[in-house]
Design brief:
It is globular, with a radius of gyration of 23 Å. It is α+β, with helices and mostly antiparallel strands. It has helices at 2-17, 42-57, 81-94, 102-114, 139-156, 159-175, 200-206, 212-230, 262-273, 276-290, 313-322, 330-342, 348-361; strands spanning 58-63, 66-71, 78-80, 125-127, 131-134, 374-379, 384-389, 392-397, 401-406, 412-418, 421-426, 433-441, 444-452.
Length: 453
């Protein structure tokens, strides 16, 4: 009995620290003809940037009995809605086998909901945990927050995330989109458009939780805007702002701190879905980027490619993503990555751009909805994986392995020796319920929960 009690205690300890489905680093090949950086230790260095960002820009406070968290803006006494959404994305993808950032995610989402306007969107700028500094919503924050909620469901589990995502997506459609699918810059103003707000990968996800035909139209309509806007630039760069047809408006006619995010979103849509329109946009921009050196990339950049004077991650990161378009740019992408990850920027925005573009560039920002639901990553560094489908346990092993299944009383109910390679183990003979699997490969052991339904 003592041994069984100790074993169950060990399992409880394990589950307390390994509560995510897709632990960082994932380093996945997205497919669709895309590439990732191949520079050594890229994921480790990116994680270090994230933990530094967390220590300097993440802050928690209890307000009226609610646990809230915010991301400090460039003016650190303030927070913007985009920063909350970026933080939510980070918490999903940087959670690993030892640290789940689900609590951080939940507190950021609670902060968003603590400062809602009449349409149910976060006011775009808030003074600390106190009051509204700038009223009403900026659409890009809603796109990213809704996407993060869907990914949180697949990372952390829990129907509440999908429920909240579905509600938010419906409100976005009603208040932040034109009837033809063109995005609005916010819920309470609707003059010029922002190419960097357009998120085709998010729109694809939204199709599954709202009106699919609408979001299909939104993808087409906004790609038309982007392609028309790109035609203003010999370098293939978007502008900060444009009119409803993509032409240059009265302001924001350079590739500056707004527009800089657009190539990240194009590369993201290409990585996840291989959109032909994303390839068209990247196919014009990537050759121009390939002719630059990282040190020469300084913004704001004129649409003819003439550089400004600001060298930071906001300009390096998204252009690194643009180079993911083709394996022809692998060497250049690695050069850009090395310069990007070496930067120690001071501002919130530059740091956030370094991290979120870095997630995509390293293969650590896959579409979790499209991946097999994992039970365990037994030893990700060496490539072992286990996935549960119905009552079949699918294993990909890098060495000789002993698989043992225990019931919750600690009694072993199944055991098998397995060799290196792919295996499908049927557990259909076991009664329905929750079991514990112990997987021992070489000198490494790990346990997982196995629900048989």
């Amino acid at each position: 009995m003592a041994k069984k009690a100790f074993f169950l205690l060990a399992l409880c300890t394990f589950f307390a620290y390994s509560a995510v489905n897709f632990p960082y680093p994932q380093e996945r090949n997205y497919g669709n003809g895309t590439i990732n950086t191949t520079v050594a230790e890229a994921s480790d260095k990116l994680k270090a940037k994230f933990t530094s960002f967390l220590s300097s820009h993440y802050e928690e406070q209890t307000v009226n009995g609610k646990q809230l968290a915010r991301i400090k803006f460039d003016t650190q006494t303030q927070t913007v809605s985009e920063g909350i959404a970026y933080g939510m994305i980070m918490m999903v993808y940087f959670s690993d086998n030892t640290t789940s950032y689900q609590s951080h995610f939940d507190k950021l989402w609670a902060y968003y909901n603590n400062f809602l306007n009449d349409n149910g969107f976060m006011h775009w700028k808030i003074n600390g945990f106190n009051n509204v500094a700038e009223r009403n919503a900026a659409t890009d924050a809603e796109f990213d927050a809704a996407l993060a909620l869907v990914m949180a469901h697949y990372q952390f589990g829990g129907q509440k995330y999908l429920t909240d995502a579905t509600s938010l997506i419906g409100k976005i459609r009603q208040k932040e989109m034109e009837t033809d699918g063109l995005h609005k810059p916010g819920d309470m103003w609707n003059s010029e458009r922002n190419p960097s707000y357009v998120s085709p990968a998010a729109f694809e996800i939204f199709k599954d939780y709202d009106q699919a035909s609408f979001w299909s139209s939104a993808i087409t309509r906004n790609y038309t805007l982007l392609k028309n806007n790109q035609n203003n630039s010999s370098a293939g760069l978007p502008s900060d702002w444009c009119n409803i047809n993509g032409g240059l408006g009265n302001r924001g006619t350079t590739y500056s701190y707004d527009a800089a995010r657009a190539p990240w979103r194009w590369a993201w849509a290409n990585a996840w879905y291989g959109h032909a329109d994303a390839k068209t946009l990247l196919g014009k921009l990537a050759p121009w980027v390939n002719n630059q050196t990282p040190a020469s990339v300084r913004g704001p950049i004129q649409l003819n490619g003439n550089m400004g004077s600001d060298l930071n991650s906001t300009f390096l990161g998204p252009l690194t993503n643009a180079l993911s378009y083709s394996s022809a740019y692998q060497s250049k992408m690695n050069d850009f990555w090395s310069s990007l990850i070496a930067r120690n920027d001071a501002s919130y925005f530059n740091k956030a751009m370094q991290i979120i573009t870095g997630l995509l560039a390293t293969g650590n920002m896959p579409n979790l909805k499209a991946l097999p639901a994992p039970v365990l990553n037994t030893n990700q560094a060496q490539g072992n994986n286990a996935f549960l489908r119905s009552s079949n346990l699918h294993l990909e092993l890098t060495g000789n392995t002993i698989l043992q299944i225990f019931d919750l009383r600690g009694s072993m109910v199944f055991s098998e020796n397995l060799t290196r390679g792919s295996h499908t183990v049927s557990l259909s003979a076991l009664p329905k319920g929750l079991y514990i699997a112990k997987i021992s490969t070489d000198n490494q052991k790990q346990v997982i929960n196995v629900p048989i339904k």
